[in-house]
């Protein structure tokens, strides 16, 4: 699937016009997902503390079944003790029927200042049954990490097996690392065998095996359901991701009934709202897609109106083995998402890790982590007002796992959260551009500007050709003569204006990617001089300067809506009057219409709300709204 062309939201005002209010809002666009049926080099340095040197290979002498190696790092808090897991190796059952296991981990009891090698846990015999084990999660069995045995694309897929009834299916082993009462010494491992039966003729979308040896944290939802993501291969040769969860009624692990789009792997999950799971994946065509499910994986919906396709993926550099941190954190009483993103700024194979913050509407780049330039997988842990990162770096026998204490980085996160809250409070006291009947008196209004879902705001923060986003997001680029006005800018001359890029310099991260599917952009403008012809005021264009939708004005005092043009002389503009213009796009169908409140319909709206009689203070906003 190819990436759609990304438009730019442009506003060009000529012949001395004052841009007073801009509002960009996301419509609640979401894409429906079709369910897939399925029964370092030498001299390398790092900013982190080295924990474990990971070797390229491991000995498999005298083993009856090839071993499974898990290399992704995981950092967990077990009863106040930090447990850093650099990797694990599992060998298949020998004649004794037991599974041998080697967990490469270290522990710290002082917040990562000093580390000790962890000497446990001990392997537990694996079940020989093709059924999912009946081992029940409880207070004494609290699994927090799952190691899912899989097969690589280069090695083919696992063969199907047939049980005594003649049913076909697949078999895999999942190893659960869990805790019991007490300190870290009670960590133990259970290896359970599971089978998925296929009661019908095989279809191309049927699962034939889990993809690669993948380790993943287990999430405990608000309703105490245990859930973790899995990636798999299908009979048709594609890959996809879904979840497994503990079904307390049936007392076994259950596979989600639907999955992501084909080609989406490396899944990570979290619970964002009550019973709502978010899953971020890396997809073949170059972006990381985010999906949401409120029914434990029975259906998945791509979150096009929020986070999906904002970040690029890492498949081009390292394949299906790379995982990133993706966690929730409650900071100063506000629930947010923190994630790490692997990016390639230059040469192939040279990667660096960036830390990002989001509340699912606004997105803030916290910074580039001091990991060097050969980082790969990473994980995050937020506990007791501290933030940590564990990551892998280097290649082959020179690879290693490193620990970072990111607690000092919380200052930047606090700054972003406090800025968002302060801007919300200030804007809520201003008047909505859609409240034509608002009583403006004493600086108060009956209908404040809504801030739920607000993404960006451009006011009078202008410096060195950039119009700064008050919400610390994407800045607009100013061209031509411009000077500050109260809470806005005045553009002078034919070539003066501003462009708010949806894509371009932000690649590989595109915080305004939602504009490809739905948004609302509003501006309060005042035109000071009559032009000599048709002059663009505000619009949306693709790369290549093709205008998709826009508004212009002419020397006959009329408004012209694009596409068209269709001059409107019934409602004429007047010099030095204040007008509130709203551009709304929902999904992909375009048409001019009148603004009908905050309802996001399946077309675009371009509306003129006539002069209120009072000039509003200028400000610039970006906002996400539900449909």
Automatic annotation (TrEMBL):
One of its GO terms (molecular function) is exo-alpha-sialidase activity. One of its GO terms (biological process) is oligosaccharide catabolic process. Residues 1-35 form the signal peptide. One of its GO terms (cellular component) is cytoplasm. Residues 450-585 form the Trans-sialidase C-terminal domain. CDD domains: Sialidase_non-viral. Residues 73-391 form the Sialidase domain. Keywords: Repeat, Signal. This is Trans-sialidase, putative. It comes from Trypanosoma cruzi marinkellei.
């Amino acid at each position: 699937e190819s990436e759609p062309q990304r438009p730019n939201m442009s506003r060009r005002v000529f012949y001395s016009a004052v841009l007073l209010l801009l509002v960009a809002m996301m419509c609640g666009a979401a894409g429906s997902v079709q369910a897939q049926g399925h029964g370092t080099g030498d001299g390398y340095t790092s900013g982190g503390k080295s924990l474990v040197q990971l070797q390229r290979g491991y000995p498999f002498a005298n083993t009856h079944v090839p071993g499974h190696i898990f290399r992704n790092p995981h950092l967990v808090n077990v009863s106040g003790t930090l447990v850093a897991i650099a990797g694990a190796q599992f060998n298949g059952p020998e004649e004794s029927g037991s599974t041998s296991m080697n967990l490469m981990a270290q522990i710290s009891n002082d917040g990562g200042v000093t580390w000790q090698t962890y000497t446990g846990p001990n392997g537990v015999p694996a079940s020989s049954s093709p059924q999912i084990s009946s081992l029940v999660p409880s207070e004494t069995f609290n699994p927090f990490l799952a190691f899912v045995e899989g097969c690589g694309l280069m090695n083919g897929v696992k063969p199907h097996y047939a049980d005594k009834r003649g049913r076909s299916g697949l078999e895999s082993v999942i190893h659960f690392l869990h805790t019991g009462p007490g300190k870290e010494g009670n960590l133990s491992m259970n290896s359970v065998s599971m089978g998925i039966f296929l009661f019908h003729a095989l279809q191309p979308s049927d699962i034939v095996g889990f993809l690669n040896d993948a380790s993943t944290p287990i999430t405990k939802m608000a309703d105490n359901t245990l859930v973790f993501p899995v990636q798999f291969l299908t009979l048709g040769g594609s890959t996809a991701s879904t979840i497994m969860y503990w079904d307390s009624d049936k007392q076994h692990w259950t596979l989600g009934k639907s999955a992501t789009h084909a080609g989406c792997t490396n899944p990570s999950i979290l619970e964002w709202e009550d019973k709502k799971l978010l899953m971020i994946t890396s997809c073949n065509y170059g972006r990381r897609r985010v999906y949401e499910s409120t029914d434990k994986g029975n259906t998945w919906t791509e979150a096009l109106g929020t986070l999906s396709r904002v970040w690029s993926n890492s498949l081009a550099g390292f394949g299906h083995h790379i995982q990133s941190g993706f966690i929730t954190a409650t900071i100063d009483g506000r629930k947010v998402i923190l994630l790490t993103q692997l990016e390639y700024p230059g040469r192939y194979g040279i990667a660096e890790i960036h830390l990002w913050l989001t509340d699912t509407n606004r997105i803030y780049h916290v910074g580039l982590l001091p990991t060097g330039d050969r980082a790969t997988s990473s994980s995050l842990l937020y506990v007791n007002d501290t933030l940590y990162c564990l990551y892998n770096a280097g290649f082959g026998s020179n690879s290693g796992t490193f620990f970072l204490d990111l607690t000092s980085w919380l200052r930047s996160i606090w700054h972003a959260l406090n800025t968002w809250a302060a801007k919300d409070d200030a804007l809520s006291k201003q008047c909505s551009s859609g409240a034509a009947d608002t009583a403006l008196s004493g600086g108060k209004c009956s209908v404040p500007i809504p801030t739920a879902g607000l993404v960006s705001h451009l006011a009078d923060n202008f410096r060195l050709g950039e119009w700064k986003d008050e919400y610390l997001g994407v800045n607009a680029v100013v061209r031509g003569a411009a000077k500050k006005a109260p809470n806005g800018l005045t553009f002078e001359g034919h070539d003066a204006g501003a462009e708010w890029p949806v894509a371009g310099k932000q690649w590989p991260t595109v915080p305004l990617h939602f504009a490809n599917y739905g948004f609302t952009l509003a501006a309060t403008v005042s035109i000071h001089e009559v032009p000599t012809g048709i002059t663009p005021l505000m619009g949306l264009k693709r790369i290549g300067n093709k205008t998709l939708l826009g508004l212009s004005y002419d020397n006959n005092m009329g408004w012209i809506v694009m596409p068209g043009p269709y001059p409107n002389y019934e409602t004429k503009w007047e010099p030095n009057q204040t007008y509130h213009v709203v551009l709304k796009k929902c999904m992909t169908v375009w048409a001019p219409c009148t603004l009908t409140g905050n309802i996001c319909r399946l077309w675009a709206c371009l509306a003129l709300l006539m002069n209120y009689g009072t000039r509003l203070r200028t400000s610039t906003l970006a906002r996400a709204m539900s449909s």
